[in-house]
């Protein structure tokens, strides 16, 4: 069979190509451009080669921020995924409870991120916040401004509050797609509650869970607004995650070269980790 | 295996049913004999699946009792009733292998692994999937999946009955035929009590020894395929079974004769008159109507040639009468029809009237 070649098709792709170029490729290339040069202002640039990359890869500051961010991402995944599944399993399947639950679940997702940050910033304050006041009344010396552990707990609880709903909604969508016959067959086969979860519900939720984990990982690895509003990266540097550090470096210190190199490394790490997650979970899926 | 008695079962899905119309199942009082192969036949929404789910225990009936071998099981769970059920869409545990799928119901019941292995291998042999033991169940075709659903019922040698809820709906036509004969073969060899729900008359008539026809939440007739064909108890059975269905003509009865319009038809006997009240109808299957040059004059509305034979749609006194004509016969120029006396049934308010003296 002869294939028909029609090069006119390329013209159809052109608008998209232009759009992507302006929205992604060109900005990315500017960052690449900054990352290999040094500047002292006055728009004078000097070739720096891989210098900034080497500096970044050996930088203690970058390493700790990276570790801190990984710890944060894995902690919230370890909490949000099981908790999300648990809530989804217990949500009603029919009746008036369904819309009520769905709206309640969707609420945190609809709140702008800086507002979420502000809510928790005020909520946790020892002098006027409901949470902070209550805890100190109870004799617990909670203070997220000064105690790094308290700051961490606050940021994690805030993220769980904000994003568990996403996992819940995705899992719920997976669960409601299971036909009744599966549950009836399981009853007839004498399956336990755990066996129903393990062999019917979990396999059906597999795909949506993959999406949930990927989204939550990428988002939490790029987290900026909420911890910035609540703790500003402190106390000290204890909640300075990668993107907070990046903004400090680029906008605060005006170290454009190192900041650009860091952006590129940061981007590659997210890309690589997401790819690893995806490959591991899909191959696991295919093998079973 | 068990004898299953349904003692005055009624079921309504809504709370507080008031009139008959609120009941999905009006009143079923029937016994399924041990080792019988039954088909539950009826149009969609007639209550077949409700009845099946009541037997398996997935639905608790609003009224009445279910007895297995004389023991009341109405309040027992599905698991305790020890029933196997095959659903319309194949239910398999797709993360498990074929072997584990079949072992699942046994392992859930705490059967020793050596017995599990023996039973599973036996069953795989029975359902012809022995070569697939270690394959993942998800990669199988629809008919193989359906066999696994069936196999999960068969591994438990002590099941009381196997229930089928339109199990061949998603199967390819040629595989349908093969699976159906395998089912019959299994029934012949092992004598399970089987109840098979379907809306396909061919499936019901070929599978079952006894066919139970349901209509609007009621059992209208229970009989062998030939009884359903020759003596439909209700005009619905006449319409529903047979292709095309039975011709039904409103008539007036006078002794051993039925009259409609200007025509008179001789009956095989006088209907049992005390019962023969209300709206009277005469039913005759197209197979028993002869088309020729004598008898009642008709006009031809349409001739459908379906290969093996022709279906001739005729008009007699404003009534449509379907006639079956052999493939090599031709429609005469001046058509008349004759009703074969042995194929005539008389109905009062849709229910068949027996012949009196």
UniProtKB/TrEMBL annotation, chain A:
Q: Name one GO biological process term.
A: transmembrane transport
- InterPro entries attached here? MetI-like, MetI-like_sf, Sugar_ABC_transporter
Residue span(s) of domain ABC transmembrane type-1? 66-277
Kindly list the residue ranges recorded as spanning the membrane.
12-36, 70-89, 101-123, 160-183, 208-225, 259-280
Which CDD domains does the entry link to?
TM_PBP2
Major subcellular site: membrane
> One of this protein's Pfam families, by short name?
BPD_transp_1
Gene Ontology cellular-component terms for this entry are: plasma membrane
Localization per record: Cell membrane
Membrane topology of the entry: Multi-pass membrane protein
Sorted alphabetically, which keywords does the UniProt record give? Membrane, Transmembrane, Transmembrane helix, Transport
Show the SUPFAM superfamilies listed in the entry: MetI-like (SSF161098)
- Into which family does the record put it? Belongs to the binding-protein-dependent transport system permease family.
Q: Which PANTHER family match?
A: GLUCOSE IMPORT SYSTEM PERMEASE PROTEIN GLCT (PTHR43759:SF1), TREHALOSE TRANSPORT SYSTEM PERMEASE PROTEIN SUGA (PTHR43759)
Protein name per UniProt: ABC transporter permease
Q: Organism, per UniProt?
A: Phyllobacterium phragmitis
From TrEMBL, chain B:
GO MF annotation, one: ATP binding
Q: Which keywords label this protein? A: ATP-binding, Cell membrane, Membrane, Nucleotide-binding, Transport
Query: What InterPro entries does its record include?
Result: AAA+_ATPase (IPR003593), ABC_transporter-like_ATP-bd (IPR003439), ABC_transpr_FbpC (IPR015853), ABC_transpr_MalK/UgpC-like (IPR047641), Mo/tungstate-bd_C_term_dom (IPR008995), NA-bd_OB-fold (IPR012340), OB_MalK-like (IPR040582), P-loop_NTPase (IPR027417)
Q: Where in the cell is it found?
A: Cell inner membrane
Instruction: Give the SUPFAM superfamilies listed for this entry.
Output: MOP-like (SSF50331), P-loop containing nucleoside triphosphate hydrolases (SSF52540)
Q: Which residues form a coiled coil?
A: none
Matches recorded under Gene3D superfamilies? 2.40.50.100, Nucleic acid-binding proteins, P-loop containing nucleotide triphosphate hydrolases
Indicate how the chain sits in the lipid bilayer. Answer: Peripheral membrane protein
Q: Where is the signal peptide?
A: none
Do you know which SMART domains this protein is assigned to?
AAA
Q: Which domain of life is it from?
A: Bacteria
Has UniProt tagged this entry with the keyword Membrane?
A: yes
CC annotations in GO = ATP-binding cassette (ABC) transporter complex, substrate-binding subunit-containing
Question: Which positions fall inside the ABC transporter domain?
Answer: 4-241
* PANTHER family membership: ABC TRANSPORTER ATP-BINDING PROTEIN (PTHR43875:SF14), MALTODEXTRIN IMPORT ATP-BINDING PROTEIN MSMX (PTHR43875)
* Record family assignment: Belongs to the ABC transporter superfamily.
Its protein name is: ABC transporter ATP-binding protein
Q: What organism, scientifically named, is this protein from?
A: Phyllobacterium phragmitis
